[in-house]
Amino acid sequence: MSRLRASIHASLLLLPAVVLLAAFTHVPAVRTFIGALYTTPRGNRPEVFIGLGNYRHLLDDPVFWQAMANNVWYAALTIPLSVILALVMALAVDARLPGRAALRMAYFTPTVLPMIAVANIWLFFYTPGYGLLDQVLGLFGVAQTNWLGSRDTALNAVIAVAVWKEAGFFMIFYLAALQTIPHDLREAAAIEGASRFTFFRRVTLPLLMPTTLFVLVNAVIGAFRLVDHIVVMTRGGPDNATALLLYYIYEIGFRFWDSAYAATLTTVLLAILAVLAAVQFLFLERRIHYR
């Protein structure tokens, strides 16, 4: 009886969270999957079941493939750069340095800034001619560049903003993990004559793998959900050079009001994220050492 009572008590405690999770996550996801099988209702014209018609349209949509290619490039650069930079910053602020608290605050400050504010700050940096970046490069004789107006530089300019903002956030997790590593391990490695690099490669890095898995999953999700910076800085231009998948979904759903096709694109995005998360857990889990 006591076990049954404890089970009922635990279920009641979990019930509010389960209801909220289902209401705001699972039910909308299921409705999105179903909505992708219909046309968008307009005026007096009701929605019509068309099966995989929206998916066939997606395969012939050049803007979708452009946004997908942009997103793959964006993810391929932002994920490793932000994770590696976060680890380097965490190692730096974990060391006993003068002014360590100020350095930690400087690294973490971009994370607490609103994304719209960050985008506007970098708009000033990237302004052709009198922006900070052109002013500094002009001292070395570099010609003015329209960083956000050129197809060759626009996406990479957005990537730089994302790395600058995300690295400080991931640094906090690495710093917390570094501070849980026992000092006895460092002392034992020093007695054995192991170098700092050897200790990092053989001890620190394996112990950081659980944190790395968590950071990588969040970095992948973040790489496919960017929309704020794009809206403020480029609006997907020039010529869709910075249009990412979520921004394209936003345009289709809220600018062109094609909810059915937006649901189709969202379904593809959810499938991509599910596959990437499964791959990360299946392959990285084998190399993780839990203490």
From TrEMBL:
It holds the Pfam family BPD_transp_1. One of its GO terms (biological process) is transmembrane transport. It is a multi-pass membrane protein. Gene3D superfamilies: MetI-like. Residues 68-278 form the ABC transmembrane type-1 domain. Keywords: Cell membrane, Membrane, Transmembrane, Transmembrane helix, Transport. InterPro entries: ABC_transporter_permease (IPR051393), MetI-like (IPR000515), MetI-like_sf (IPR035906). Belongs to the binding-protein-dependent transport system permease family. This is sn-glycerol 3-phosphate transport system permease protein. It comes from Chelatococcus caeni.
